[in-house]
Design goal:
Layout (H helix, E strand, L loop, with lengths): L3 E2 L5 H7 L28 H9 L5 E6 L3 E2 H8 L3 H8 L6 E2 L4 E5 L12 E7 L13 E3 L7 H7 L4 H7 L13 E3 L50 E4 L2 E3 L2 E3 L2 E4 L5 E3 L4 E9 L4 E7 L5 E7 L1 E2 L6 E2 L4 E4 L10 E7 L17
Antiparallel strand pairs: 1-9, 2-5, 2-6, 3-4, 7-8, 9-12, 10-11, 12-20, 13-19, 14-15, 14-18, 15-16, 16-20, 17-19
The chain binds zinc ion (ZN).
The site of zinc ion has 8 residues, from loops.
Amino acid sequence: MKPVHFLLTTAASTAALGAAGTVVAPSLADSKSGTLPISAPPALSADLIAAAETRPSTEKIWVKARQAVTLKHLASQLAQDETLISQLNDVKADHVFGRSEWMVLPSTAIKQVKTVAAVDTSELRRTPPLEAPPEPSETARIRRGDTTLAKVAQRYNLSIQKLLKLNPGLRGAQLVVGTPIRIAQANAGRSRMVLGLKPVGSGGLSWPDQPDFGFGDVENFNDRAWVWPTKGIFTSGYGWRWGRMHRGIDIANNIGTPIVAAKSGQVVSAGWHGGGYGYLVELRHADGTLTRYGHNSRILVRAGQVVRQGKVISLMGSTGRSTGPHLHFEIIPAGRGAVNPLQMLPPRA
Ligand SMILES: [Zn+2]
């Protein structure tokens, strides 16, 4: 749990984000740490956390979604209370578990869960998965029964448009069982944890000093790469923590540190979030992906506004369920659950 520094070194980033200044102590708490008692010591040792997390639970089990499934459907299939399932997973009642997303269920559902088609029990656990859930594989093969592009797209939670973008030239007539198809963007050459290293050159980062485009067509800004939404100390990664799923990453710095759009997009919401994110900004990007920026002290955009990548959208704060100034950042691809932002953001090497 040792915080890792990362630096953005381009001249433009310094201009856009200001000097780093004194860095506050990293915050371990955030919007998803509701189960942590207020009186808990701020720095639990890694050993203690590991011990707590590896003790098998008698009340909970962890399984993966085999395909996208609504919380409501799952609860009804398992004859379990929707509220209980949403609480266990720290998601809203209308949540849709994406393919390969881990879900927590009461252990009383252990028999029933094996009969639910949307649930994969091959990796059933009684302890939280310590690693972030793996990304869905980049390729798949046409399955029996997938006779139309619409069916293939539906199976992998893609729009037909996106499916065709990933597989240029794919036609309905080519849907032969076993044919490999691409179902996700390639992530070639990207390692998982490369924070802490100074990027060589710009490292693909850009902090364009562009005017606000105001209202407009978000499709015009189809940025290829993500940029880091702020700078500071990386205090918490994506994955299971204290028995809860942490669906984003935390970056701590001083109150007022600028937060920028990680990609161009349109502001879906900008304001107070009652569920723990404090002052929250949500952006929708050209491919339908949603990004969330939580715990802000100040919001600088309004709903409906189109913002260019690198545009300052808010200032870092500690609003909502948070014990210190930090940004909670999530990336939620369309039709799926949140993914690990570290797999999308540019590597720090
Ligand atoms: Zn967080």
